[in-house]
Amino acid sequence: MGLTGNSIPCMHYSRMTKAGFQIHIPRSMGVTEFTYSNVEKEMEVYGYDTVVKSHCRMCHGGCGVRVYLKDGRIEKIAGDPDCPINHGTLCSKGIGATQLVYHPDRLTHPVRRIGPKGSGKWERISWDEALDTIAERVLHYKEVYGAESIVPGYGTGRENEAVIYRFANLLGTPNVLTAGHFCYGPRIATTIITCGTNPIVDYENHPRCIMVWGNNVTISNPDCYKGEPFSQALDAGARLIAVDPRMTRIAARADIWLPLRPGTDTALALGMLHVIIHEDLYDTDFVENHVYGWEPFVERVRAYPPDRVEQITWVPKEKIQAAARLFATTKPAAIQWGVAIEQQVNCADNNRALLALMGITGNIDARGGQVLFKPPRIVNVGRFGAHDMLPSEQAAKRLGGDRFRLAGNFAIINPKCVWDAILFETPYPVKMLFFISSNPLMTRGNAKEVYQALNAVDFMAVSDFFITPTAELADIVLPTATWLEMDYIGDFWKRHGYILPRRKVVQIGECRSDHEMLNDLAHRVGQGDFWWETFEEALDFILRPMGITWNDFNQMEYIRGDVSYKKYRQNGFSTPTGKFELYSTLLENWGFDPLPQYREAPESPVSTPELYEEYPYILITGRRIPGFFHTENRQLPWLRELHRDPIVEIHPETAAKEGIHEGDWVILESPRGSVRQRARFFEGMDPRIISAEHGWWFPENKDPGHGWDASNINILTSNAYEHCDPAMGATHVRTLLCRIRPEADTQGIQET
Amino acid sequence: MKPYELIIDHESCWGCRTCEVACKQENRDPDGVRLIKVLEEGPRIIDGKPYFTFRVSTCRHCDEPACVDVCPEEAITKRDDGMVVLDAAACVGCGLCVEECPYEAIELDPKRGVARKCNLCFHRVYKGLFPACADNVCPGHCIYFGDPDQIKREIAEKHTRRPRNPLS
Lengths: 752, 168
Fold this sequence. Notes:
Largest sheet of chain A: 6 strands, mixed
Helix content of chain A: 25-40%
Radius of gyration of chain A: 25 Å
Strand content of chain A: 15-25%
Strand content of chain B: 15-25%
Largest interface: A-B, 71 and 57 residues
Low-confidence stretches of chain B: none
Oligomer: heterodimer
Number of strands of chain A: 26
Number of helices of chain B: 5
CATH architecture of the domain at 196-373 and 567-589 in chain A: 3-Layer(aba) Sandwich
Structural class of chain A: alpha/beta
CATH topology of the domain at 196-373 and 567-589 in chain A: Dimethylsulfoxide Reductase, domain 2
Structural class of chain B: alpha+beta
Distance between the termini of chain A: 54 Å
CATH superfamily of the domain at 196-373 and 567-589 in chain A: Dimethylsulfoxide Reductase, domain 2
Strand order of the largest sheet of chain A: 5-4-16-15-14-6
Helix content of chain B: 10-25%
Mean pLDDT of chain B: 93
Number of strands of chain B: 8
Shape of chain A: globular
Largest sheet of chain B: 2 strands, antiparallel
Radius of gyration of chain B: 17 Å
């Protein structure tokens, strides 16, 4: 039911069967056939009284769901076969959402801290008291220190991003602290400056070759993607190339697996580009007519011949050549990418080198390649975010804006800039933090410094489901609604061209969506003219260009923007030159190298050989785990059962050398600190590499710290400015040096 | 010949473990008791090629089920349609079936003091619904339920479209 443009699909339940797969049951069963996702029968057999279609948000979101209820309580969550994103399937997180909604530890009313920070002493307050207190602080700091002293923030967001930006821009603060410096923000920034928007893999039309680059899409669900359409494209016969230091299942299924030295992605991509250019495998029409900066680009690529790239990356040149040839000669082809390559010093150039691969092979905006999808005609996130309402003199004060200018031009800041402004009042003081769906104590580089800053800040409010380690340091914590407790326009901010209705299913305690909360708070700080009586009117506002209201949209399955290919042939690209900018005129204007270059990781056997003697392993972090979403879901029994402990993967040869046995708790150390995780033997990577998990805290630990520093890998990572991407300010948290030893050898650390 | 079977296409399994949670949602077994579980094989290099695969482990509904023979309470029965069904109400939790099962597919629920195994969602199948794990939940589309011959043909056809590792 792929309706596009303004047409309005009505809601119905289809009977989906897989490839003519209908099953006949012997008559003795009294049943004649099965159909997938059989709503009527589910209702009848289990006595559910209601089923509501909605749109999941347990990760970056996207999957259509059916929520079954009995007596007003959610009993079952299942995938929606009518949804074009997931085609009826779901993941463990989506199914587990019931346990999030009804979790006994959920915060269901606002609270105010009544003891010292981290004391875990809270008292219940009313919404009015909570929001009035926050509003009073906002107005006070704005008057005394300027609006820039107030920093709202979000992590991966609950689709509240544009709402938070609207609040910040109307307040006049240029400082919104998000994960955007090293997650998805770089994809948006680098794709916009290169080709106008983020090219999305056209899985629906089955790419014939997929290169998965530092991504585990089938369990990680990167922005704009789901594992299911990737699986379908693969089952339809796509060739597969995997770029990953670890042997994932994707790598094991691949035609070619390139196990690169961690952090050398840009060099590998430039090496592949060298092969493609040297062997004339590029799309000459695209290069001659649609790219900007071909000659200097070729000159730059010349510096990365396969011999040199083999030395840098540890990948044999024959494999680099074979992968480059397969990718360039199989049409259409696409690159499945994600966050791993962005959380590095080469963040922007990693992305730009991969964009070059998509571009010169003619796969940009090609059917079955990587498409510049058009969103439906709604008020987009940029306009809703009111970026044009931020006075230019306030925008000029954006923290780090003069240093990380690519980030600054996309309203993104680097976290250390905020910590420094709190701790040292440079370049000016930050007095208030307001984290709405963010747990930076666990997720930002150099966690000890994050702790110092959160401990020192004058006033902090948090909106979340639970009192997380970050929230324990707040003054006020607001109880927020899950995706099952709000109406919203799902995937409003995505680049795949769909919007889908998210429908409120239940109300839990006094929980309110971040959107409604900010709409209310905005009135209390004098922004009322730019907001609405209720947030439902904001949804009408977003949809108005289509001539519909939320009530109309609520009756639909989804809306998709018009789909067309190779639009650049008529319109060019939405860049300063109108071309696909291999050579970025904007980066050049901002004082950066306009061409992608490879930088050695700040800590590595090559860049810091002396440190490598002391810390003799390459630590990679942030491997994805089914069931968890960064710091979330460790308190949900169905999901924690899948993975109980923080696990560090170690090659058995290395383990033998270090006296480590499978299952041992081990100590991981970097120059910044040490944490404990449990060893698991893993032969699928070079023995010089150690792979640790991120996001670990222990909700079952009722001490107010909840074990935030016990296994938190960001105790080990660096957030030094010189370790960040020079243009994007991405913190380099994915590749560093470490040592490892059995915990039993350690004095003063308790065995559990 | 069984009229229907649960068949896993392990080549297409990504180890996402959605099936485990779908089973939990349906059967509500306590923490630690899993009627279906995803195990790992590898990773390692075999003959110079990367090998890493997942194995979905659940009751095989054996033709000659050892658990049926060993149960002193006759709580496990093999039905005419091939499904091996454990009746928790008749189970005393002696654990003999747990020891006897060659596939480690039976677990003791210590809370209720009974053995638990995959009954192929008999309670759903009987009413015309797919087993919970096989109701199109799997993002890899690797769980099939139905006529085994037809499923095997379908899986084989799928994998001829994409020969395994021709270049590596």
